[in-house]
Specification:
Elements (H helix, E strand, L loop, with lengths): L6 E9 L40 H5 L4 H14 L4 E2 L3 E2 L2 H11 L7 E8 H10 L8 H7 L9 E10 L3 E4 L5 H9 L11 H14 L4 E10 L2
Antiparallel strand pairs: 1-4, 2-3, 4-7, 5-6, 5-7
Length: 223
Amino acid sequence: MINLDDYIAGGYYISHYMPRPVWMPETLIPNPYLSLSGCISDRLPVATVWLDSIPPEAKNLGMTDELWELFKEWSNANLHKQFGYPDTFYTKQVAQTVLDQYFPIPNDLRIMGIALHKSRVKAFLTTHQESGDYYGVYKVLSELQPLEDGAIAHGLEVLGYENGISHSWLCYSMESHCNNDLGICPNAAGLLDENIADIANVYVSDKEGGQNWQPWLIVEYPT
């Protein structure tokens, strides 16, 4: 059982479960699966000032062209106020408000939260202090607050940080390598149980490098 009190919130997202692509092994990754990687999941791109038209991620989440234009006005007015670059809401309530106002209903969207274990936060903040709270995850994490109430923990995902959450261990087929070399298997959501996430993170960090790989807790809020 994951103790949420052991984790510090890193931000909130609007996303949904993803259909498993053909290159992910069906014996290890469920269909659909859960990820908060900006590479292999549809996360709402909140910072929109440079986007001339609705991006594929927003369309995949069900936003219409008309609602995108309205949302873009809100986004341009609220960068670094209610969310941070590139796509991290500071609070669950702000994410809920955006979900209610700018997406058609019904939909299959979720508010997701991300958090880092207390033991990892100080080193993470020190490593990335140069960029500081310009980036949403850093700002939320630096406030040293727990996840907001109501979170349902699904497991941990090994994610790379590079001025925001970017790649997942899944992007490099590390789920197969960890399974072959370490006997590690993802859970029913395609995430990792707490007792093996650190082991997988060390393995991925050694094999891939280049980013700050961390085992991030992924939670969901009922909407």
